[in-house]
């Protein structure tokens, strides 16, 4: 985990420890101090720790002090310096993170409400544990996360603001640390395969601090694994284009945006509407109420179920749909030539005497010679009835746009896209036609 500069400032800005202890102990005023150094050498080591600004040098001094004086009146101050020093080293040196967690546990044994130790466990515990943490570490992170969140108002009470920290920065630190504690609880829940709690904590983290593109990216992966695609796509969009404090590197943003575009198109069926999701995610860390994305796969499944249900209840449609499926397939042309061309359909096949469709157009309106019907979809033409002679005036009462019409006839031609099956001089029950005598038509194969 690479902390942004601002985040690192919030991390270490409240961990400093006072140097007054060394000075007061060296020059007591009025009465003997409550604490004493073992000897001058321990005092010199304490002074060296206080005066060393380089974290690596200070850690060496702390380790020397710990080794030579394991029992010390100043053990609490030494532990505070350990937390401060290791927290400065941890971002750039993964080897120091476990050492930091160990020192945090020491501090929490002495004071279970040590706010700094609680926060550092929630921050670095997930980094140390990764994807396969020990149960003990998960438990430590959970306990620290709940304790920090529960005590945040007290930890950040106005009376506890350190000198040199502005009110605004103190509140920023509260927001940053509380959000990270929620994020740590999400990590713990994922480790325990508790998806519901993980989702709740991710949302709490982003609600507390919306400016967390790294958390949005992690939440996106979690939601993607949970097959919650609309929510996952929103988080990918958020992480890919967030440009405020802590924004991801351009290369990472591009990778996330490419994934979003590809995944959106696959899920939705086309790129339409992606711009709206991107616009929403650019200004908010969580989607608005009622947010959703239509799924092409779910739509196709629903359509297939509706077609199957219709075929079960309508033998004529089943025969029509079966012919259409074969004609639009890879071998459609050969199927037409061998099985459909000059064949009378339905012609009694499967016990079906007539097809039925909704009239979409009549041409010309007064003396029709061509009628376009929608058999599959009443709003989309897929059958054309062509007549050698205009239909008589008596037929106009039945041949009207929007009316249902039954027919049976010999197939003359077809097109794949848009799909259209054309019948020459068909028979229309209830309509007297003036078509020439029909040539014997082939019957459909049964």
Structural descriptors:
rod-shaped; alpha+beta; disordered N terminus; 446 residues; OB fold (Dihydrolipoamide Acetyltransferase, E2P); five-stranded mixed barrel; 6 strands
How many beta-strand segments? 6
- Terminal CA distance reads 68 Å
Q: In DSSP terms, counting alpha (H) and pi (I) runs of 4 or more, how many helices?
A: 17
- Residue stretches low in confidence (pLDDT < 50, at least 5 long) are 1-13, 18-30
Please give the radius of gyration in angstroms.
Answer: 38 Å
What is the beta-strand fraction? 5-15%
- Biggest β-sheet strands, sense, barrel: 5 strands, mixed, barrel
Following the backbone from N to C, one meets helices and strands in this order, namely HHHHHHHHHHHHHHHHHEEEEEE
Shape: rod-shaped
Number of domains: 2
Notes on the protein architecture:
This protein has helices at 5-12, 20-26, 40-51, 55-68, 75-89, 97-110, 115-129, 135-155, 167-191, 195-208, 213-225, 229-241, 250-268, 274-283, 296-313, 315-327, 332-340; strands spanning 344-345, 355-363, 370-374, 383-386, 404-415, 420-427. The longest helix has 25 residues, at 167-191. Helix 10 (195-208) runs antiparallel to helix 11 (213-225), helix 15 (296-313) crosses helix 16 (315-327) and helix 16 (315-327) crosses helix 17. By secondary structure, the protein is α+β, with helices and mostly antiparallel strands. 33% of the residues are buried. It has 17 helices and 6 strands. The radius of gyration is 38 Å and the shape is rod-shaped.
